[in-house]
Amino acid sequence: MTESLETDVIVLGAGAAGENAAGRVVSAGLESIIVESALVGGECSYWACMPSKALLRPGTALAEASAVDGSREAVSGSLDVPAVLRRRDSFTSNWDDASQVQWVKDTGIGLVRGRARLTGERTVEVTDDAGTRVTITARHAVVLATGSVPVEPPVDGLADVEYWGTREATSSSEVPGSLLVLGGGVAGTELAQAYARLGSKVSLVARHGVLDSLPAPAAKLVIDALEADGVEIHGNTSPERISRDESGAIVMDLPGGQRLAGDRLLVSTGRRPALDGLGLEELGLDPNSLRTDDSGLVAGAANWLYAVGDAAGKVLLTHQGKYEARATGSAIAARAHGEIGFGEPPAYSRFTATADHTAVPQVVFTDPEIAMVGLSPKDASARGIRVSETSLPLSVAGSSLFADGYTGWAQMVVDEDRGIPVGFTFAGPGVAELLHAATIAVTGQVPLDRLWHAVPAYPTISEVWLRLLEKYGL
């Protein structure tokens, strides 16, 4: 027997984006039901942002203490691996979603467990592990917040070898003696450093280079740090074959006859929206080319289907997904209440997520960190913006106090026709905390002659703002 339910808004996926979308519509007086087949809280809470940063932070804290004369003398020994893993487990609530389920209940959101499939306009069928089916009909909207899944690279033999994805790497109860990492992007790089500092012998293989999409001086600082941590880097190459040898070790054959072996293999070669099996094809929608407007509304779905976060495929970052979800939830509620129509709402309203156009912030939580927002010189030029680039070593009183021998780098990209900054990159220990000021400057389109009057406190790393403006010529 199939149970039938009705609500205002159905949200598929109880990760950070889905929770924010549902919470937003409920706070506006609508009803909402979230459908989730795994843990409420999603990837970020249990297998991505939180556990990966929990694995990284102890090594960074130890390095910071060891980088200051007076405290380094008090540092002895290495990381306590069991303690690091216990602390990591605490941030995932030991992979128990009871507290998140309680939040959903307390917020007034309904929860249905199971796998969802769109069966018609505003209609979703949910099947749980026991085969029980529930049909849910939405009065106003269905929101896809199903996140993303890893992309498996086409490497000969990989499908026959048991390997780690980022989920297994962030939740592992063991630190392997040796670890092969395939992928030089953010997740692969962060986890390579985390495991190297926990005691693994790490070899990292990157098809292009390590963090090759980021400014080269910033990436170089991270590469140098990885090598100082003992990570063996093989850039601009790809494995020809992956297999297991007679001893059970995982073997990676590289071009030229080079062979790497490890106890474990981590594959981190990108992610794609998790839209398979949702029934989009039956609705005339291609899951490989889903398009949304700035309110999250899916093109071709007759004004009822929305997508947010990784599922929308715009920017695969948790904070960006939460931001999109808040805008989408507000737009759905406003449309339900007749406050706005279905034409695209104005930019910079609470009904549109426009930050992905010009001002996406991102942090690489390696040691040193890389924090960036906005456009690179190349991206800006491709948009027809006439820009200048100002960069310099991050060397101010605040950085020298932060760590002996502090090494960092900063870059400012300026739209010369408007006299406003359109991008910033900072690289160095502790620079993540500089990022929100940069995000405000880019989002707010703050003119440089006004930014010059934002006086950085002395002695802080934020003095780099003054140095960038001085070098620019103000």
From TrEMBL:
Residues 8-320 form the FAD/NAD(P)-binding domain. Its cofactor is FAD. Pfam families: Pyr_redox_2 (PF07992), Pyr_redox_dim (PF02852). Keywords: FAD, Flavoprotein. SUPFAM superfamilies: FAD/NAD(P)-binding domain, FAD/NAD-linked reductases, dimerisation (C-terminal) domain. Gene3D superfamilies: 3.30.390.30, FAD/NAD(P)-binding domain. InterPro entries: FAD/NAD-bd_sf (IPR036188), FAD/NAD-binding_dom (IPR023753), FAD/NAD-linked_Rdtase_dimer_sf (IPR016156), Pyr_nuc-diS_OxRdtase (IPR001100), Pyr_nucl-diS_OxRdtase_dimer (IPR004099). Residues 360-465 form the Pyridine nucleotide-disulphide oxidoreductase dimerisation domain. Belongs to the class-I pyridine nucleotide-disulfide oxidoreductase family. This is NAD(P)/FAD-dependent oxidoreductase. It comes from Arthrobacter koreensis.
